[in-house]
Amino acid sequence: MQKQPQENSENRMALKKFFRRLRSNPTIFIGFMIVLIFLFIAAFGPFLAPYPYTQQNLSERLQPPSDDNIFGTDQFGRDIYSRILVGSRDVLVVAGSGTVLAVFFGLLLGLFSGYRGGYFDEVVMRVMDVILSIPPLLLAMVILFSLGPSRVNVIIVVGFLYIPMVARVVRSVVLDLKTRQYVEAARLRGETSAYILYKEILPNVLPHLAVESSMRFSYSIFLVASLGFLGLGVQPPSPDWGLMVGESRTWFHQARWVLFFPAGAIAILVVGVGFMSDGLRRMLLPGGVSDG
Amino acid sequence: MADREPVLKVENLTITYDTEKGPLHTVRNVSLQIAPGEIYGLVGESGSGKTTFARGVVRYLPSNGKITTGRISLSGTDLATLSHKQIRKVWGSRVTMVHQDPNASINPSMLIGDQIAEAMRVHLGLNKKQAGQKAIEMLNKVRMPDPELVARRYAHQLSGGMLQRVLIATAMATNPEFMIMDEPTTALDVTTEAVILDLIRELMSEYNTAILFITHNLGVIARICDRIGVLYAGELMEEGPIHEVFRNRLHPYTRGLLGCVPRVDASKKSITLSSIPGFIPRPNQLPPGCIFAPRCDLVEEACQLERPPLVEIGPSHLSSCRRVDCLRTRTKEVEQAREERIEELGPVVLEARNIKKYFPFSGGLTALVRGKKSVKAVDDISIRMRSSFTLGIVGESGCGKTTLARCIAGLEEATSGEIDLEGEHLDYSVSRREPAVLKKIQMVFQNPDASLNPQLPAGYSVARPLTLLRNMSKKQVQERVKELFAAVSLPPDYIDRLPHELSGGEKQRVAIARAFAADPVLMICDEPISSLDVSVQASLMNLLAELQGTAGTAYLFISHDLAAVRHLSDWIAVVYLGRLWEIGSAEDVFVPPYHPYTEALLSAIPIPDPDIEQDRIRLKGSVPSALNVPPGCRFHTRCPRKIGAVCETEEPPWREMEGGHRICCHIPIDELKTLQGGGLLKKAGQGGNR
Fold first, then answer.
1. What does the CA dihedral B505, B511, B515, B516 come to, rounded to 10 degrees?
2. Which of B93, B111, B133, B573 is deepest in the core (most CB within 10 A)?
């Protein structure tokens, strides 16, 4: 109603404040910029790419970077630059969806487990421990061998593997929050558990969740790249960065750029997301709360 | 003492912090001197720059803080000009510090003895063996029982009071000329505080160290300091010998602070506490004239034009108030007398009988070996409350007072016992109580920062009980929220504010409004004021008393501050180790005969009047663990009036007196009366005003 304009200006104020904080710390700023650039590339990659990513040119195999192919060409004469641009979409979508999956289920499990406590908590947390006790890559390989490698299956695996970590972080925050006095005040006036979880606890979990999600995202990128490298992820001819690194193994004695550019792309993205999550932590959780 | 050469001489000290918003002059033009063997008390509300000043004096400031002007001389050495290397030599040898929180000041992974020895090895050049021996000597000096044993322990094995002694021993070890004590007793129980203060007093006369003693508690200052300086927003308002300042109070701020402190000899029925309106200004928003002018009730136009200097107004007594003459003639107390309410017993609201709460002590494997034990937090307590009636519960920390309150509220399920509210039987757990019952019991919690959801606006927190428990329409809710905010004296635009935009006292007001929104018949106040400044405490106590007058709510008021309990309560229950030992009307409990434990508590209260002499009854040791409750009378291990074997073997009987005043002790009432005589407070000389 009348509140609308005021709220709008408040939002703008908050946004301004956010950007001021962004600028005041160069690391955070760089992190956000890197992530934004990659998101842009992922969205418009195919339009930016000078060549179709599957276009082979067998006479131009393993050419070093030149004016025509600024990142050089691979073993089939495909333009590496175009493949990296197009491939960013794969990485971001697969790692991103996996993260979303993990965060969603991890949040639910963590909330209920932490709030209810007792046997439910005990059982859930022990199951999480079991998943955590198996090396993630090994577990991912076992699952992918049985499900068969595909994009959707990689998303499921990433999500599954990171649920326990998210759940643990959320649970530890909930354990702290549920003894807060505003939660007790809510219990005293007879609020339902659902209300307390949704209205009193969840909003205070979100900052922690945002930091945890961004960290999970950077790990997911790694995992997706590792699976691609092992040939268990996205299948050729998809321009998956991990896959490209994997395929380059045979050639990189003759042509280092085949390995260098996709690996560099992975590294830059992971560092960027890392900076971003570090920045989020400093902005959202001043005083530094343990990350479980 | 004044004629001796001062140890510390500070002249016109200004300390500035560099912040994003420009320089903040946190302490401005403060000058003071401390003579050897003198304890100088520095008092002020939080944010007045006490700690910054103390740290600035020894140049122990954070990296963005610096001394802009002023001279600091420590027995002739100019501290302000020393290089970093030189000042490091001064720290720990010539200047030492005792901090507020003993748990955070002691390295938990180091033996106590090594910790004390460390300072001596570094600064006195002693070898390991000598230092170790000296450490035990120091522990002996601070009256530590079994010093050899304690020296070989870690911090977590000692109680708060013992740790504070260790800190004092460490600080004294190098025989410093000057020592800073920053709220050294704030985190301790009254009884422990009294013991530590006695100890500091004794040690000082022996060692001749000059001490800067920082506290917000005027009672503590009155008990141990020789001189007092009142700091307000970074400037000294009044300074002088302790008796002079407390008797004459020649600055409105001093007067205001003292008026805020509840007295042990008067209650809400007879007086309203005075409180200081407004807030302490930030150093970048100072008023042009006298910095206290916006909050002063004596303000005149000239006050707002020019900053008044600190001038001598008596023998070494300084005040910065222009209107000293006016203050001299005005009566000392500005408190308003209250009409005595006619005592009328309301209907019984709450009846709790034989409440017990045992927490299972699950030690994993130990439980298997030693059998199951339980912590008896509350062990058989019965209370009864009437409407418009306040029951105060006092006791040291860990005595079970909060657990009792949480059992009644249903946040903790009682192990056994019966709770009746307005004649209806109550379920133990809040989750099984009917909404109609729920609205009748509300609670105000201790920590203002945790009592409001940081993500929800203040108005929402107050509105929620209205929609949930009283089924009001949206419009009615809005109306009622406005009324409630007005009732707790908050402006209506606070309704949309988020908790981080409110001060501690304001948050607590919102919490009180939230509790009253449900229109409860019983309100449990669990130390609602203990983490706030005195002036805020006073205004909240007035608010609580006022709301009770209009709403007729019964209060269960829990506090370790006996003066606050005395002020607000009609009846007082004294709890120790999960059981009641004395219960009676507030007037009766505060005059003899009392239970020996009550007697010790009362004698430990720091009273903000240096002219009052209190009997010294000090309790030894700390509260025994609730896992191993002593047999017989639970208090016998620390009781100063223990009569013999009976106390160790038999549970004491309840002895009843007139007016329902009851004491649970082996000593008969008449004997207690003769033992305790005329009471604990003795006025030195005359003085009818207090």
1. 50
2. B573
The candidate with the shortest Cα–Cα distance to B143, out of B162, B119, B118, is B162
- Closest-CA distance, B563 to chain A, in angstroms, reads 26
- 3-class SS at B530? coil
Mean confidence (pLDDT) of chain B: 85
Q: Name the residue facing B411 among A180, A187, A204 (closest C-beta).
A: A187
Tell me how far apart the alpha carbons of residues B119 and B94 are, in angstroms, rounded to a whole number.
11
Question: How many Å apart are CA B106 and CA B97, to the nearest integer?
Answer: 12
Distance from CA of A228 to the nearest CA of B (A): 42
Find the DSSP H helices in B303-355.
324-329
CB hemisphere CA count around B413 (13 angstroms)? 9
Contact B442 A184 (CB under 8 A): no
How far from B466 is each of A185, B160, B462, B469, CA to CA, in Å? 13, 43, 7, 6
Please write the tens of the pLDDT for every residue from B267-311: 777 777 887 887 788 888 888 888 888 888 888 888 888 888 888
Most B CBs within 10 A among A6, A180, A183, A188, hence the mutation to make, goes to A188
Cβ-Cβ contacts under 8 Å, B447 against chain A: 181
Q: Compute the distance between CA of residue A176 and CA of residue B121 in angstroms, rounded to an integer.
A: 42
Where residue A3 falls among pLDDT bands split at 50, 70, 90?
very low
| Residues β-bridged to residue B585 | B571
User: Min CA distance, B397 vs chain A (Å)?
Assistant: 19
Give the model's pLDDT for residue A283. 77
pTM (2 d.p.) = 0.83
- Whether A185 sits inside 8 A of B454 (CB atoms) is no
* B474 vs A contacts (CB less than 8 Å): none
Of A230-239, B1-10, B217-226, B663-672, the poorest mean pLDDT is in B1-10
- Give the span between the Cα atoms of B497 and B453, in whole angstroms: 12
CA distance B433 to B402: 20
What proportion of chain B, given as a percentage, has pLDDT over 70? 94
